């Protein structure tokens, strides 16, 4: 009976090419090495695949499996480990590219600012060095090297402000979503001017708004804003005037005077006037106060978009008014250290004086 089952068992190669191509799309590129060389038909199918390569920290630096693919087969590339054999200039079909600058050679970093990836739609860069950040942002802003780029995320290696030199506005720039870990007010006008089709913007401002900043032309297409501000009330009111058609907002920061109710009362007053289309509101606002649950209920009633706000308690009187986190983030940068940890057991075993 076992011989009968064996003889009737469907063999892999009996499947049509279309089905084999679909099956191999779900096989890890490393495991595809086992199929390479079986016969001419399997080789042709492997050569027709569009592959996703993820280079992570491994016990060995052996990447010989990459040799079974042509550079144009790679449509998604993620580099989080040293991988010197990769020549980025040849990967002209890339659609998604994620990399950590720490693991790229100088030659590969130079390629980033010179290559033309016409199909690239997603770009994520971590640990951007100071000497690379200006040229990199200029390339992204110009849009000529990555004309199909829709989503971009940039994180710098250290907490310095990223900046760029390019100042022209290109209507053909396709970028829709930009997340950049740090920006500064004086360069905001130039950045928004360069990206006329931007829909989603995420960044952090380390300094407060400066009243000497020149007028900034409102960006009418931005709908989603996720922002960290040094002064969440004053700075937010200024910023929102440049994004009047906003529909989603997430604000993070520290309430300056710790008067939470006053903070949300003012916010409930200017939000409907400045961004009348706002539908979704999230916040993560820190303070040091002895407010109780009654204050939380009052805040929820100030405006319909505040209905999800809840007060999370940290150590001592540290509080966080938030909508999309459930537990107070301990040891955050806004936490006030004006409390003394309770010490127990100090007098245990000591004789009474």
TrEMBL record:
SUPFAM superfamilies cross-referenced by the UniProt entry: F-box domain, RNI-like
Domain named F-box: residues: 9-47
SMART domains listed in its UniProt record: FBOX
Database matches in InterPro entries: F-box-like_dom_sf, F-box_dom, LRR_dom_sf
Protein name: F-box domain-containing protein
Superkingdom of origin: Eukaryota
CDD domains in alphabetical order: F-box_SF (cd09917)
Lineage of the species this protein comes from: Eukaryota, Metazoa, Spiralia, Gnathifera, Rotifera
Annotated Gene3D superfamilies: Ribonuclease Inhibitor
């Amino acid at each position: 009976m076992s011989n009968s089952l064996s003889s009737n068992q469907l063999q892999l190669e009996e499947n049509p090419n279309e089905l084999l191509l679909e099956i191999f799309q779900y096989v890890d590129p490393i495991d595809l090495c086992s199929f390479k060389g079986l016969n001419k038909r399997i080789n042709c199918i492997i050569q027709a695949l569009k592959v996703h390569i993820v280079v992570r920290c491994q016990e060995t630096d052996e990447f010989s499996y990459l040799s079974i693919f042509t550079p144009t087969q790679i449509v998604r590339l993620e580099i989080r480990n040293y991988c010197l054999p990769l020549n980025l200039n040849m990967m002209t079909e890339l659609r998604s590219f994620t990399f950590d600058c720490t693991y790229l050679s100088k030659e590969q970093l130079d390629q980033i600012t010179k290559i033309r990836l016409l199909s690239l739609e997603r770009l994520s860069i971590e640990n951007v060095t100071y000497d690379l950040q200006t040229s990199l942002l200029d390339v992204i802003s110009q849009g000529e090297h990555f004309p199909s780029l829709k989503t971009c995320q940039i994180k710098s290696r250290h907490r310095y402000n990223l900046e760029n030199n390019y100042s022209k506005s290109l209507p053909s720039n396709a970028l829709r979503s930009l997340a950049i870990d740090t920006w500064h007010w004086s360069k905001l006008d130039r950045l928004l001017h360069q990206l006329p089709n931007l829909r989603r913007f995420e960044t952090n401002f380390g300094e407060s708004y400066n009243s000497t900043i020149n007028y900034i032309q409102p960006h009418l297409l931005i709908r989603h804003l996720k922002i960290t501000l040094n002064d969440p009330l004053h700075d937010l009111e200024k910023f929102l005037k440049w994004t009047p058609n906003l529909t989603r907002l997430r604000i993070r920061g520290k309430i300056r005077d710790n008067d939470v109710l006053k903070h949300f009362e003012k916010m409930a007053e200017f939000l409907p006037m400045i961004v009348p289309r706002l539908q979704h509101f999230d916040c993560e606002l820190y303070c040091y106060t002895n407010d109780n649950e009654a204050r939380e209920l009052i805040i929820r009633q100030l405006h319909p978009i505040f209905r999800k706000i809840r007060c999370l308690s940290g150590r001592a009187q540290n509080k966080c008014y938030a909508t999309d986190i459930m537990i107070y983030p301990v040891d955050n940068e806004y936490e006030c250290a004006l409390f003394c940890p309770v010490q127990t057991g100090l007098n245990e075993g000591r004789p009474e004086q």
